[in-house]
Write a structure and sequence with these properties.
115 residues; alpha/beta; 6 strands; single chain
């Protein structure tokens, strides 16, 4: 699923990485607020769906080779988070939807879970 399609389905705002929305694809979704769970992932082309909106989320995603993050529940990234994401060529998005609704909508479009 392309990043722009994810943004459309979720009425999400792309905060960082607008230039990647047309071609970059995400194959798998993973929803968690526990960054220790994120660090166990080995898959590629993963969308991290989380309500944990702090600098550690960006650093954890970087360590797990995840470069597309969606913040749910209308969480907003800080300037420090935006700068770090830009440095790492990440995509940051935000959606007003709950994590439950977000996951349901993405699953309904055919996005697959990691497990």
């Amino acid at each position: 699923m392309k990043i722009r399609e994810i943004a459309e389905v979720l009425d999400a705002k792309i905060i960082v990485g607008e230039h990647r929305k047309g071609e970059d694809e995400v194959l798998l979704g993973f929803a968690s607020d526990l960054m220790s769970d994120v660090l166990t992932l080995e898959e590629e082309k993963v969308l991290l769906i989380t309500g944990l909106c702090n600098i550690q989320t960006i650093r954890t995603a970087e360590m797990a080779n995840i470069d597309v993050i969606l913040f749910v529940r209308n969480k907003e990234a800080s300037e420090e988070m935006i700068e770090l994401a830009e440095e790492n060529d990440m995509v940051l998005m935000q959606s007003k939807f709950s994590m439950f609704k977000t996951v349901g909508l993405l699953y309904g479009t055919g996005m697959q879970p990691i497990y």
